């Protein structure tokens, strides 16, 4: 099943989000970071190596993706990083018992429109619980018809676009990786609409 394989590759959006984290590495020590849909966890691993307190998560229904998270941690000498099964749109004991969070990471989580509302439901829950937190996300533009604007409004969330050139990611090659290539990748930060953000 192709779906279960999504989390076993490093996708171009992960490289771009990792570049953003690297560009902001001085702000990361001590930050509490949760990566959702982590798969091989490149952004989360970069955040942890930069001093953030990271929790990695992927769907509890995809044990292979959770194992990819664990393997990435071990290969990067981060055996202490917790890995949780969190399924978008589902309130679980793991979600309810999460410690406070400053930043939520998600690279290429907006790849299938059927999941958009479940993702934003989970993000809304986390931001309500952590009002000053932000969701840093990169996504690949796959269709001009796909939009989350109505869902952002429905869930009282706002987004701000982050220009790739502002953190040196407007190149075909990043950190010796040709992965971003000619893909149209965008970044945004999502927060509660009434929050001033941090």
UniProtKB/TrEMBL annotation:
Coiled-coil annotated spans: none
Family membership noted in the UniProt record: Belongs to the methyltransferase superfamily. METTL23 family.
Molecular function in Gene Ontology: methyltransferase activity
Source species of the chain: Melospiza melodia (Song sparrow)
Cross-referenced Gene3D superfamilies: Vaccinia Virus protein VP39
Gene, per the UniProt record: Mettl23
One BP annotation, GO: methylation
Name this protein carries in UniProt: MET23 protein
UniProt entry tagged with the keyword Transferase: yes
GO CC annotation: cytoplasm; nucleus
Keywords per UniProt: Methyltransferase, S-adenosyl-L-methionine, Transferase
């Amino acid at each position: 099943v192709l779906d279960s394989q999504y989390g076993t590759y490093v996708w171009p959006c992960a490289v771009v989000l990792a570049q953003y984290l690297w560009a902001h590495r001085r702000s990361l020590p001590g930050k509490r970071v949760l990566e959702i849909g982590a798969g091989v966890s490149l952004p989360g691993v970069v955040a942890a190596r930069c001093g953030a307190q990271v929790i990695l998560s992927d769907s509890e229904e995809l044990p292979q993706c959770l194992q990819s998270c664990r393997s990435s941690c071990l290969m990067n000498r981060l055996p202490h990083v917790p890995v949780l099964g969190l399924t978008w749109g589902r309130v679980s004991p793991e979600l309810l018992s999460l410690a406070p969070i400053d930043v939520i990471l998600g690279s290429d989580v907006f790849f299938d429109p059927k999941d958009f509302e479940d993702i934003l439901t989970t993000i809304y829950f986390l931001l309500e619980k952590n009002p000053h937190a932000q969701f840093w996300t990169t996504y690949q533009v796959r269709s001009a018809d796909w939009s989350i604007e109505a869902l952002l409004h429905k869930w009282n969330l706002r987004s701000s676009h982050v220009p790739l050139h502002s953190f040196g990611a407007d190149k075909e090659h990043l950190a010796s990786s040709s992965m971003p290539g000619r893909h149209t990748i965008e970044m945004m930060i999502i927060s509660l609409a009434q929050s001033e953000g941090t």
